[in-house]
Amino acid sequence: MQLREKELNWAGNLAYGAKELLYPTSIEQLREHVHVAKSVKVLGSRHSFNDIVDTGELMISLAKMPAEIKIDPQAMSVRVSAGITYGALADVLQEAGFALHNLASLPHISVAGAVSTGTHGSGETHGNLATAVSAVELVLADGSLMTVQRGDEDFNGMVVGLGALGVLTHLTLDILPAFEVQQTVFEDLSWDKVLNDFDAVQASAYSVSLFTDWSGDHVGQTWLKRRVGDALVDDIDQGKFDGLPAIAAVHPLPGADGAICSIQLGETGPWSDRLAHFRMDFMPSAGDELQSEYLVPREHAVAAIQTIRKLSPVITPLLLISEVRTIAADELWLSGNYDRDGIALHFTWKPQQKAVEAILPQIEEALASFAARPHWGKLFAAQVSELGSLYPKFNNFIALADRLDPAGKFRNEYLRRTVFGT
């Protein structure tokens, strides 16, 4: 359809520039749309805060494509259509007795969008969401279909693909037997004690999140998601890091309603209702926020956190909340954790884009000595000249994109700015 009004992203900070938005209802229609297009991008759940999917020409939504979730118990995998949300997938898997290894904060995001940008959950032994992918299926620039499986030559370059290689139609993901989780939130852990034994804090749960505004001497909230049956360090419970368990459900934002968050207070329940921070049946906000995130090697975790704490006078006035998580290393070329275990320094900003963008170069300069990699779907200042040196397989990815999309049909201003150059 021709667009009379511009479509907005989830946060409302970006109006997409596409002249036309199409909703194919079959693979055949999708292939034809891609084949005849001169320039095309795919609109997913709109939870990107930058122009990664923006275009001045054709935009395609997969929202009306057939929703598919096919579990293979023998292979311990599930094949899903690209537009499926993690919340919808988690419900189906849980009902069948299976699980994913992790979830992001929001269950509302699409599988394809999260995988393509290297989005992650939390846990020192868990890779990002893309590491569960064992096969990708996509429509190439000429309208042909391609399937690549784990172990194939180009696979590690195609999973975190930034939308630069083709249109994802289906993904196959590894699954696990379903498990139960208990979530407990501790308030006001001592920063000094946390940083003195950061490893013990991270070893205290299947997934650990530290929420802070970077001011003061205490971590605001520490969310512990513990898989029932795991043998874990209980130093936090025993008061080694100070702080006390919350006595009511809390929200990461001070004063916000904890009822929309995943169930806390140590109540046992399925992974599908605990690993994400927010419940699928509630939106966590009206979208009035911006986000940035930087992935830092694990060996620099304490130094990087200390560096950001020193920037509190600059950061805190624009901040809603910040989160620190751990992620395991992987082999995916453009993943923020390619070839290194790491931590994520996440920033949820007030909706003041000019002011936020003005301080991002200062944050990135402060983190530069730690080889911090920005999350591809969030706000950052770095361009191709800085980003290229952060990824050992950066040029391999460019060569792969040149081969699969020689005319640059899937490229846009974002990709020219951050990957391919002008």
TrEMBL record:
It comes from Glutamicibacter ardleyensis. Keywords: Oxidoreductase. It comes from the Bacteria. The keyword Oxidoreductase applies. This is Xylitol oxidase. Pfam families: ALO, FAD_binding_4. PROSITE patterns: FAD_PCMH. InterPro entries: ALO_C (IPR007173), FAD-bd_PCMH (IPR016166), FAD-bd_PCMH-like_sf (IPR036318), FAD-bd_PCMH_sub1 (IPR016167), FAD-bd_PCMH_sub2 (IPR016169), FAD_lactone_oxidase-like (IPR010031), Oxid_FAD_bind_N (IPR006094), Vanillyl_alc_oxidase_C-sub2 (IPR016171). Residues 14-178 form the FAD-binding PCMH-type domain.
